[in-house]
Amino acid sequence: MADLNKDEIRAMGKAVGLDIQDPELTEVMYSLNALLEALDQINPPGLDSVEPLPIILPPA
Fold first, then answer.
1. What is the pLDDT of residue 1?
2. Which residues contact 40 (CB under 8 A, 6 or more apart)?
């Protein structure tokens, strides 16, 4: 997976209502890219053959 750049992270932040300024943006970029890299390493055997299930929550 390609690393996310500052513009992509800034856009994702704005999509969820966060305004990430430049001093924090670099730290967020490194942390998020490290997390994505670590998640990419998780690959249990047979995962590709499992059908995803919808998440159904009980009424509140």
1. 66
2. 1
Q: Give the tokens for residue 55.
A: 């998440």
In angstroms, the CA 32 to CA 22 distance is 15
Which residue's structure tokens are 């490290």? 34
DSSP letter assigned to residue 5: -
Half-sphere exposure of residue 9: CA atoms within 13 angstroms, side-chain side: 19
**What pLDDT was estimated at residue 47?**
82
pLDDT attached to residue 10: 94
d(CA 33, CA 37): 6
Mean pLDDT of the chain: 90
